[in-house]
Amino acid sequence: MIITWFCGRVYGDFRWRVLGRTELSSKYSDNVLRNNRHLSERATSRCRWRSDRSIQGKHHAQRESKLAATRNRLRINVEVALEDDDDNPLEAYCQLVYWTLENYPQGHSAESGLLELLEEATRVLKDHRDGIWRNDPRYLKLWVLYANYVEKPTLIYRFLLANEIGTTFALLYEEFAAALERDGRCTPLFHPNIKNTY
Length: 198
Fold this sequence. Notes:
By secondary structure, this protein is mainly alpha-helical.
């Protein structure tokens, strides 16, 4: 048997063709068949890998478009809440921030825009409606999240203390102490309203 090969339409897919009848050893025929199977499987897996990549690209594009649409909707909710006196802009900002954290679990990145969003939310709500959000725990949590993403969080906590934002909550003092401890400058914090009972 005379055996020749030709390349199929798929790159690397070698197929064997019988041109005539001659006696060959069965060992040689088995090797040819085994090689043919191996090369065919490699070509098939390459094609499958390429099609998987194109499917992943489509899914990624669809996911990004859904994320952009949801982000725009939440952003519009924030703008409406800021303009309307009956709405709660803090709640709208919290929804947008928590949605961002949920959909971008890696945290701050160029895609998520989390740091810019936290900076905007804390800055805009600071004096909005005469600062009614200053003693709201949700507003303090936005500040704590913001402090977690900046280079020097102790400056943020000092700003909060100086502007009396969240000073009625233990969370502020716990996070400030943790930031000082991370910096290696742990000093006792005492608030005038807290008495030393040691």
